[in-house]
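Good morning C.,

I know you're traveling, so I'll keep this short. The sequence:
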Amino acid sequence: MTSSVMDRLWAVVPAGGAGTRLWPLSRAASPKFLLDLTDSGRTLLQSTVDRLTPLVGDRVVVVTGAAHEEAVRAQLPGVERVVAEPSPRDSMAAIGLAAAQLELEDPEALIGSFAADHVITDPEAFAACLTEAAEVAATGLLVTIGIEPTHAATGFGYIRGGASVPGFATAELVSEFVEKPDAERAEAYVRSGEYRWNGGMFLVRATTLLDLLAENHPDLAAGLREIAGDPSLLAERWPTLTKIAIDHAVAEPAAVAGKVAMVPGPFGWEDIGDFSALAEMTPSGASGVKVIGDESLVLAQDASCLVVPAAGRTIAVIGLEDVVVVDTGDALLVTSYARAQEVKAVVDRLKATGRTDLT
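The C-alpha cells, ready to paste straight into the viewer:
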C-alpha cells in the first residue's frame, strides 16, 4: 500500500509572506523563503524542496506571488510547476488552486502542503511520518502533522489529539484546534502532554480538500475549480476569492466533524518566526557568538549575540547579552532576543511614513 500511496502524493509548497519579523534581512522583494538563513548554502525554499524530492520525485508544485515567480524559478530550475498568484489571498486559495489543478489530472491525487520557510531536522523521521500521514489521508481524512512542543510557545497554534485511528501506528483523530494561546494556557497545554504545535502541514486527497472547503465556503471552492478548468480566468476571478487561511477554512470545521487526523512529527522543526528563533538554531562560532555570514567581520568581547554582517562591514559587539545586530547596508537593526517579535512594528512604521523602499 505504501508505495502506491506515495506514488500519488504531490508536494504543494506555498511560498508567500514577507517575513517582516526578520527585517531588514527579509523584505517584500526578497522574503525569507528566498534567503539562506541557516548558512547551509541553500535557501529555505531550496532546502524544503530538497527534503521533499526523495519522497515525491518531480511531483512538486510551488505557489508563489507573481513578484517572486522569476526568483523562485531561478532557485528551483528542476521544478516545472510554479503557479504565480496575481495577489496574496492567504493559504487556502494558494493550496486550493494547486489541489484543483491536480484534481483535474488525477481524481485520486493526494497532496501535502509544506511551507517554504520552515527548517526540519532528521529527514528519516520526517519521511516515516509523511508515509504514515499519506496512508491515513488516502482513507479520506484530512491529516495534519503535530509537532512536539519543546517549550510553552505563544506564537504557535496547538492541536489536541483524541482517539487513535484504527490500523495506524501513531495517528489520532483531532479533537481541537486552538489559536495562539497566552503564556498561562500554553504552559498548561504543554504540561498536559495532550497538545502539539500546529506546524501547518496538511495531507489530504485533492478532491477531499475541495469538497470540505465547499461545505463552508462554496463560492471559494467553486472559484478555484473554475480557474483550474480555465486558467484564462485567473486574473479576473482571483481577486474575488475569499481571503482565508486553510486552518480556518477547512481544518477547524472538519475537526469538529471528526474528519481530521494528526500524525505526530518526531523531528526537529522551526518556522524561524523571529530573530530569537533564528539565534536559537544558529550554532556559536569560533568567536563565541552566533554569526550568519562572514564571521571574520565580527569582533565580539564579553557578548552573547546573533550578528548578521550582510553589508560586508566590520561589526564590533562589546559587553552585550542576548542581542541581535543585523546590518544590510541600507538599514541597521539592533534589538534583544526578548523584543525580537516587535521588529514587525518597525516595518509597519516605515510603511506608514512612506519608506516602502526599505520594506
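Safe travels,
E.
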